[in-house]
Each structure stands twice: as structure tokens, then as C-alpha cells.
Amino acid sequence: MAIKVATGRPLAWGDLFTFPNFGASLLAAFLTWLATSVGVLLCVVPGIIAAFLFYYSVYFTVDKGMDGIAGMKASWATLSSHVGELFPFALAGVGLCILGAVTLIGWLVTVPLVMLLSASLPTCASRATTSSADLISSGLSAPRRLQPAGREAATIRRAHRLG
């Protein structure tokens, strides 16, 4: 539902009971949990890195219709190529969740808010170049798109074709 809201599509009551690409999303969520757990067992830092790099796995499987492993590859490629731009956002999301945990009932607000912000980030980034010519003519610099470049983009295209 967060992806629908972030992309501007209308919501219906039936959306509460539909689970697009459920099997692939479940596989991506399980493998992400497994990678994060193994990383935490090895040392805390690899677990945090795995959780960060695989964060969008389920979003890619649901929104792009990829299989679970292709979604994980796409998440890894996207986030690893934009760590400096997206890591502060991840810290803000964790901070909001901690703030919600402190107030106990605050989770009812902070978790959906973080999910909505997370779903809207790739959507906003893909729409960032729609008015680049207008921005340049007005003296502002064009926004930078948050999409993987080079080898990472080729990996996502390959994974999407296979899925």
C-alpha cells in the first residue's frame, strides 16, 4: 500500500487483502533476514551493512515484479552505488523507529511513516529529471537521479529480464 500511495495510485479497501508477488516478496524478506542474522552473528557491523544494502529487496519484488533474488540484487546495486545519499535517510528512519519505541504507542505513527518515506524515495528519484531543463534555465542545477550506474544498472536489467 505504501508503494501505491508513493506513486500516486488510488487506494481501495481491497488493497488491504491483496499481496502482489507474495511468494517472491516472502523469499526476499526471508533471505534478507537470513543475511542480516548471519552478519550480526559474525559481528554487528556486517549485519547492519546487510540490512542496509538489502532494505529495498521487498520493495523491488513488489513494485517491479521481480523474483526474490533479483530484488535483492537490485537493492544491493541501487543502495551500494548511493551510500552517501541514502545512509543519512536510513539513520533518520532508525531514529524515528527508536523514538516510536520510547513512547510505545508512537510505533503506530512512526513505522507507517518510515514505510511511506521508504517507498517514496525511489519514486521521487525517478521523477527527479522531469523538469531539468526548467531548472537549468532558471540557474539551478539539475537534480541527481538515484539510480544505479554502470555495472549495477546492467545487473538490474539482467535480473529483471530473468525474472
Low-confidence stretches: 125-146
- What value does the average pLDDT take? 76
What is the percent of helical residues?
Answer: over 70%
- Major β-sheet annotation: none
Instruction: Name the overall outline.
Output: globular
Order of helices and strands: HHHHHHHHH
Continuous helix count = 9
Distance between the termini: 22 Å
Class by helix and strand content? mainly alpha
- Percent of sequence in beta strands: under 5%
| Rg from alpha-carbon coordinates | 17 Å
For the secondary structure, the number of strands is 0
How would you portray this structure in words?
By secondary structure, the protein is an all-alpha fold. It has helices at 2-7, 22-42, 44-53, 57-63, 68-80, 83-102, 107-126, 132-137, 151-162. The protein is globular. Mean pLDDT is 76; it is low at 125-146.
Please tag this protein with its features:
0% strand, mainly alpha, globular, 163 residues
Task: Quickly describe the structure.
The chain is an all-alpha fold.
List the helices and strands and how they pair.
Layout: H1 2-7, H2 22-42, H3 44-53, H4 57-63, H5 68-80, H6 83-102, H7 107-126, H8 132-137, H9 151-162
